Batch of 2 targets.
Target 1
Amino acid sequence: GATMNFNYQNAWSLDVSYNSFWGGGDINTFSDRDYVSFNLKYSI
């Protein structure tokens, strides 16, 4: 997987994460699943 973090003026923060499953052939139940997540934060 991979994660990126962006900060703007020490008030806004954005985290973007990506996770991919591969391998295992036909018996891998996760082989066709990818996950992307976002987290947006604001600090006063």
Target 2
Amino acid sequence: KNGVAQTNNLQAKLDIGSIAAVGTANLVNNALDMHLTAVLSSKFSQSVGGNGIGGFMKTALANNQGELAIPVLVTGTMQNPKFMPDVQQMTQMKLKGMIPSSANPGGAVGGLLGGLLGKSAAQAQNQNQQAQQQAPSPQQNAVQQVLGLFGGKKKQQNPPK
């Protein structure tokens, strides 16, 4: 509309995984405002793993099938696109336990598994919440893992006396 292409469900299948995109591309001034989620196959994810940054990314962003989900912001222009990790989306995925899979890069693994097992979304969410309550401070772990990817450290807060 008016030279602006908009999508909320663009998906592409690649040899190394799949990509889901949401956002706009202005064909008049070539501006980009997109949110992408790349889900790399488990085979490819293993090849970039190890003790380096790829290994840390697998720890923070791997789903239960061993696939690596990487949310990315794309801004700039079509001639000069800028790619940045979508840290906010990474944190939300970890906090909610909803890391996409290559079969549904725009969706959540928890919902997919619930559907496959014949469980309602509410049942899957309830089980997910119970698992999160048993784990020690998942919010703090997720934030620390994401910050660790980029060399940052979250400051420890001292409890009030």
